[in-house]
Amino acid sequence: MFRNSPCKHLFAVLLLLAMCLAVFSGCKPKAPTEETTTNPVKINENYLDEIRDKGKLVVGVKTDVPELSYYDKETGEWSGLEVELAYNVGCEIFGVTRSELGDKVELVGVTVADREEKLANGDIDLMLATYTKTKERAKKFALSDSYYTSYIGLMVRYTPEDLDSLGTTNIKSLADLDGKIVGVAKNSTTRNDMTNYIATANQLKVSPQFVSYSSYEGLYKALKKGDIDVIAVDVSILNGYDDASTKILPDRFAGQHYGAAVLPENAQLLDAVNKVING
Asked: What domains can you pick out in the chain, each with its CATH number?
């Protein structure tokens, strides 16, 4: 029907154009996707055997959080929930009882400021250091199931004899923090959690100032000196620093779910950790 007709030539031109478009579209680079731009982590399936061959599990724990992980400089003894978890994980990995564990678990003191660095550098195999589980942290490390939940709380100076002291007249709750200086731990989630809570809470119009400290002891000393008005950290940590000169306010917000952390390629270690946590 199209023999020697303009339609025949038009059809041929359109067919040729379609073929060219098909060829060029086939050669067009694919748009970047998550699959093409990220390299999946290769899990070390022999990591537990490597720890057994090494003969030691190195665990990073806090030194200054009574009841969770604490090191007594006078006695040289460790104590707390996270310390016990570390020992129990060691027993699970090496297949021994606590009395047989010996020195197969080495505890290394870490702070809120350096715990991620020590894990990333391979100075420790496992981190058990009041580490709150977040989506951002899960992108950097492999995290275990939760083993403890705390909440952010507030601590102020308290002197009953002084009518101008904080805690009794000036700062009674989160609502009194407008313009106040709040001390938080460096590299913690507290500042973000606190500002998010203030932003979403009804009728709470306060704008505190934040200052970071690298240790809880530093926060405590700053509070006593008057360099800060309030300490804002997990209540489980505040309890270890509460004394007659301080007051923990009743505010509780932003639940903090603690988890153990390992390098992504060493996620096999979390099998032993979760078994102990859920055991």
From this structure: 47-149+258-278 (3.40.190.10), 151-255 (3.40.190.10)
